[in-house]
Design brief:
Blueprint lengths: L7 H44 L1
Length: 52
């Protein structure tokens, strides 16, 4: 069994960083979509309330 090489000190943090970036992008996109849906619901409720 070989020991850890110096490439582990570059490869593992790089993989973690890529994972964080992908999570950040997907999470921000999901949050933006959820916020847009909530705004749409509020507008529909207000329109129904004013129509009544």
């Amino acid at each position: 069994m070989g020991g850890m090489t110096s490439s582990h000190f570059i490869f593992i943090p790089a993989c973690l960083l890529i994972g964080v970036i992908i999570g950040w992008v997907l999470g921000s996109r999901a949050a933006r979509d959820a916020f847009a849906i909530e705004l749409k619901r509020r507008e529909e409720r207000a329109a129904r309330k004013s129509a009544s």
